[in-house]
Amino acid sequence: MSIRIPINLASEPFRRDRPILAASIAVGVLLAGMLAMLGYLVWSERVRLAETRTAVDRLSRDVAAVTVEQARLDATLREPRNAEVMQRALMLNTLLERKGISWTGIFGDLEKVMPSNVRLIQVRLPQINARNEVLLDMIVGAQQPEAVLEFLKRLEGSSLFGPTSVHASLPPTDNEPLYRYRVSVTYAQKL
């Protein structure tokens, strides 16, 4: 029986470097491709940024021109000879806005959210606020306060009405057997 002893008499031992070199070359090519892709992305982003800056500059010039024109028109409207016409136009526009409020629409939409045990006692003339919203101020009554609370929940849950606020409440009296509440709510009627 012979025993084999491995002896390497070469000055440099044999190494298996070929797979490592192939993997290194593949990774190098992949990294070079990614570098090229990133370079292209940077270049295209710079081009888009230049186009955006050009568009913003153009829009800024347009806004400046419109602002100058608006200032010129405002100066013309502020002249004393035009003041009477402006006041008349403002009054007519206010009247047209008020005329545009549909009472039938208001009552129809209130009917959809009002419980059967709540009564609408009074609705004051709707007002239009600065955001062009219709503000309803009304007095409602019910035998029990819970019914009015249900009405307020339904108002706030409706897409036609906004947040509600209760300004005052009155308990029942000998002449008026209902709990009465003064309520304000924004109404989303198209003007």
Summarize the structure.
With 191 residues, the chain is α+β, with helices and mostly antiparallel strands. Helices cover 54% and strands 19% of the residues.
Supply the CATH superfamily name of the largest domain. Answer: General secretion pathway protein M, EpsM
| Mean pLDDT across residues | 85
Cα separation of the termini: 110 Å
Q: Tell me the helix content.
A: 40-55%
Biggest sheet character:
5 strands, antiparallel
Structural class, by secondary structure, is alpha+beta
Give the low-pLDDT segments: none
How many distinct domains? 2
CATH topology grouping of the largest domain: Gyrase A, domain 2
Strand content: 15-25%
Summed up, the helix count is 4
Q: What sort of overall outline do the alpha carbons produce when their principal axes are compared?
A: elongated
Helix-strand string: HHHEEEHEE
Q: Number of DSSP strands?
A: 5
From the 3D coordinates, which CATH architecture of the largest domain would you assign? 2-Layer Sandwich
How would you portray this structure in words?
This protein is of the alpha+beta class. It has 2 domains: 17-78; 102-187, 2-Layer Sandwich (Gyrase A, domain 2). 54% of the residues lie in helices and 19% in strands. It has 4 helices and 5 strands; from the N terminus they run αααβββαββ. Strands 1, 2, 3, 4 and 5 form a 5-stranded antiparallel sheet that branches. A hairpin with a 5-residue loop joins strand 2 and strand 3 (134-142). The longest helix is centred in the first third of the chain and has 60 residues, at 18-77. The protein is elongated. The termini are far apart. The model has no long low-confidence stretch (mean pLDDT 85).
